[in-house]
Amino acid sequence: MHAPPRQAGPAVDLEMLQFFIPETEEYCEQMEQVLDNWQRRPHDPRAEDTLLRLFHTIKGAANSIGFIHLGRLAHEMEELFLGIGERGLQVPHGTKLDLCADAALVIRRSLRR
To answer: Which pTM was predicted?
Structure first.
């Protein structure tokens, strides 16, 4: 029995990709700085807001150029922060740090492919 053929997603806009990669690298650097600060100051409310904004920005940019898998990852991270902030979702601080660091790493690695 054969698996159904995988359907290709939308093509990535290669012209826009040349702008997307350095901008997203910069966003990942900002995330890492925020995460370092947040680890030292876990009650800083600006950290969650900043990370939410960065994931939101990456989501929009990734989806606009057809980098759908990155858009989905950023969307899920954005939903995590919305759940924490708006719906009172309780997530241990260390877990939030780990999830954000892992997401930033996946994003960076995806940019290098």
So the answer is: 0.85
